[in-house]
Amino acid sequence: xxxxxxxxxxxxxxxxxxxxxxxxxxxxxxxxxxxxxxxxxxxxxxxxxxxxxxxxxxxxxxxxxxxxxxxxxxxxxxxxxxxxxxxxxxxxxxxxxxxxxxxxxxxxxxxxxxxxxxxxxxxxxxxxxxxxxxxxxxxxxxxxxxxxxxxxxxxxxxxxxxxxxxxxxxxxxxxxxxxxxxxxxxxxxxxxxxxxxxxxxxxxxxxxxxxxxxxxxxxxxxxxxxxxxxxxxxxxxxxxxxxxx
Length: 245
Known about the structure:
It is built from seven helices and four strands, in the order ββββααααααα. The protein has helices spanning about 25-50, 55-75, 85-100, 115-135, 150-165, 165-200, 205-245; strands spanning about 10-15, 15-20, 20, 25. Strands 1-4 form a two-stranded antiparallel sheet. Strands 2-3 form a two-stranded antiparallel ribbon. Helix 1 (about 25-50) packs across helix 3 (about 85-100) and helix 4 packs parallel to helix 7. The radius of gyration is 22 Å and the shape is globular.
């Protein structure tokens, strides 16, 4: 039986070498492309024939739009409208990446730290640039808690700086670890279905099969929640950069 971690192995599909650089098109790249095309297709097809009474595709597109729009409005306010395309793209890309990974024999690219860290670094660098662009050097006041006595700042300012710099790590590890752990657990328990079923004439496989069904439903919920958490934290970070609190 294959290792539960075999499903996370990156395999080159089209070998591309540029000197010492390996630019191969991999299974991870393929599913990122699928997520991009699928997300674009849902929005284009959903709104190409917009109607007062929405169809299935239009309903999905409008639900995602309203969901992210309300999220931005509740966390950032009216100033957050200009950042809607970025946050919406992040949410849809991560959500589709998570959901595609639930399909048997598919690849979950959000289970790789390099992917989630790259997304988190884009958010971190962008938010930092936004903070300095809006407030200039006054953005450094973000690391100085108001109303704190001078001597305490020697302790609290380094803590605030470390906390700020750890944002991309916590943001990326949360998504990567949840996807990795959930898929690994499902694969491990799936092994018991075949193992116990083979020696007990299928009777012993009933319990692990029921457990897999429950875990799969839970993993689908987690896939949505992780996309939501990534999006809402991005909103909160943008709000911090805009309003300094």
